Amino acid sequence: MTEMVTIPREEYDRLLAAAEDLADLQSYDRAKARLAAGEDELIPADYANRLLNGESALRVYRDLRGLTQAALAEKSGVNRVTVAEIETGRKQGSIATLRALADALGVSLDDLAA
């Protein structure tokens, strides 16, 4: 048998808001734990804005890491011309190439594909 409880709308709204606040706090705690464990990183606003404005994710993350195209090419094993062509949008790059670049930059493949 299902029991029903009737409460005033005001009390329901208060309980709903408290549940949403709790969910927000739990999300915050998980994010802080990922940061503390080195599983995630904060990206400075100017770099985040570049990504949001549609700039090449490869270029933004390369700049964030302080690498030149040549240094990224050497670190990833990808030809420097290929790095430049992906950054400018002339080429998309294969999954293997993007994975090598992502690994060299310490980001996920999804971060470069976004």
UniProtKB/TrEMBL annotation:
<dbReference type="GO" id="GO:0005829">
    <property type="term" value="C:cytosol"/>
</dbReference>
<dbReference type="GO" id="GO:0003677">
    <property type="term" value="F:DNA binding"/>
</dbReference>
<dbReference type="Pfam" id="PF01381">
    <property type="entry name" value="HTH_3"/>
</dbReference>
<dbReference type="InterPro" id="IPR050807">
    <property type="entry name" value="TransReg_Diox_bact_type"/>
</dbReference>
<protein>
    <submittedName>
        <fullName>Transcriptional regulator, XRE family</fullName>
    </submittedName>
</protein>
<feature type="domain" description="HTH cro/C1-type">
    <location>
        <begin position="58"/>
        <end position="112"/>
    </location>
</feature>
<dbReference type="InterPro" id="IPR001387">
    <property type="entry name" value="Cro/C1-type_HTH"/>
</dbReference>
<keyword id="KW-0238">DNA-binding</keyword>
<dbReference type="GO" id="GO:0003700">
    <property type="term" value="F:DNA-binding transcription factor activity"/>
</dbReference>
<keyword id="KW-0614">Plasmid</keyword>
<dbReference type="InterPro" id="IPR010982">
    <property type="entry name" value="Lambda_DNA-bd_dom_sf"/>
</dbReference>
